[in-house]
Amino acid sequence: MKSAELIAIGPAEKTVRCIEVPDPGAPAAGEVLVDIVACSINPADILTIEGNYATQPAPPCALGIEGAGTVAAVGSGVTRLKVGDKVISLGRNNWVQRIRDKAESFARLPNEVDLAQAAMLKVNVATAHLMLSNYVDLKRGDWVIQNVANSGVGINLISLAHADGIRTVNVVRRAELAAPLKKRGADVVIVDGPDLAERVAEETGNAAIGLGIDAVAGTAVGRLAQCVAEGGTVVNYGLMSGEPCQVDAFQFVFRDIHLVGFWLAKLMRSMKFEEIQAMYEKLGARLLDGTIHVAVEASYPLEEIAEAMAHAKRESRGGKVQLRPNG
Ligand SMILES: NC(=O)c1ccc[n+]([C@@H]2O[C@H](COP(=O)([O-])OP(=O)(O)OC[C@H]3O[C@@H](n4cnc5c(N)ncnc54)[C@H](OP(=O)(O)O)[C@@H]3O)[C@@H](O)[C@H]2O)c1
Q: Using a 6 Å cutoff on CB, does residue 173 contact ligand 1?
């Protein structure tokens, strides 16, 4: 069967290839075999491949944080999954045609879900959901501000917040994103800039914004901190600028702003399997009722993984880039 392989740390379009590996074979007791249908390529995959992530891979090695597929076979003693069930993989190394692993390495989804959408659930939807739930007790009508609002996480956050009556200020880099994001439920869409706080105050009627969500770091997180009300929390979960977080000490000392970090992988390690399964079941239902939907800009077979990597690294994309290991 085909699998992606990282041959060296370096530019993703040059260091990942498609290879033949042995088929995993029939599942043993407690295991299942899953055919992987769709895999999203996330910024964290690119950061990992290029040596800029929290964990360093040791090439040659398999890859891929996200993968969704169908159960092809179940081993003895497995009762919670059956052949044909749709699942997302909770493990890593998902850019491959088939995975054999213990049943608890997969979360079951409703069988009506679209697997291309399911392939974005594990990382970005859960991240948006947990950041909205875990830091500030948000009630209907409350405001949240985020940057990178047109990203996968950003669009999910808009959708989930809107469904719960929470209002969002969405900071982007391109003015043309206002209309599509408002269509998804964004209340305010604003282009980043030095006077961000003044413009946000104007657009929201001086609303007290309790939660800021940042994936850029650098000076952008400092501008977001200025928009958050005294005593509020800014959650940093990404480093798209590649720069350290820069927040004026004024924000901490005189305005009591709290800056915290979010990392899904670490948080999930602290969750029991039953909690994880329940979370994805709930988020899977949000896929089915149409609350959550993120565009896929392109899908590639594993044989074209170099092109897929180059595409995933492009800025100003109109959606996710995915792999389709089984065509
Ligand atoms: N901490 C965690 O557990 C966790 C979990 C999930 C995701 N993340 C992080 O969340 C972020 C978004 O991930 P995603 O999969 O949702 O992204 P995505 O859909 O691939 O979109 C990438 C986004 O980043 C923006 N961008 C790229 N370079 C930028 C820069 N230098 N300054 C500002 N914006 C920039 C793009 O804007 P344009 O469209 O204008 O190019 C686009 O909005 C990433 O940093 C990712 O690592 C973290």
A: yes
Class of domain 124-264: alpha beta
Q: What is the pLDDT of residues 8-22, one digit of tens each?
A: 999 999 999 999 999
Q: What is the mean pLDDT of residues 201-205?
A: 98
* Phi, psi angles (nearest 5°) of residue 137: -80, 90
In angstroms, the Cα distances linking 107 to 73, 190, 270, 272, 296 are 15, 37, 16, 12, 22
Rounded to two decimals, the pTM is: 0.97
Pocket test for ligand 1, best of 42, 46, 283 (most atoms within 8 A of CB): 42
Domain ranges of the chain: 2-120+294-323, 124-264
Question: Which fold is adopted by the domain 2-120+294-323?
Answer: Quinone Oxidoreductase; Chain A, domain 1 (3.90.180)
Burial pattern 209-243, b for ≥16 Cβ within 10 A else e, equals bbbbbbbbbbbbbbbbbbbbbeebbbbbbbbbbee
User: Could you report the per-residue pLDDT of 260-280, keeping only the tens digit for each?
Assistant: 999 999 999 999 999 999 999
Q: Is 316 in the pocket of ligand 1 (CB under 6 A)?
A: yes
For residues 20 and 1, what is the distance between their CA atoms, to the nearest angstrom? 5
| Cβ–ligand 1 contact at 267 (below 6 Å) | no
- How many helical (H) and strand (E) elements, i.e. helices and strands, does the chain have? 12, 15
Residue 249's pLDDT band, with cuts at 50, 70 and 90, is very high
At residue 212, the 3 state secondary structure works out as strand
Question: Which numbered atom of ligand 1 lies nearest the CA of 241?
Answer: 31
Tokens of 6: 């990282």
Residue 3 CA to residue 97 CA, distance in Å, equals 6
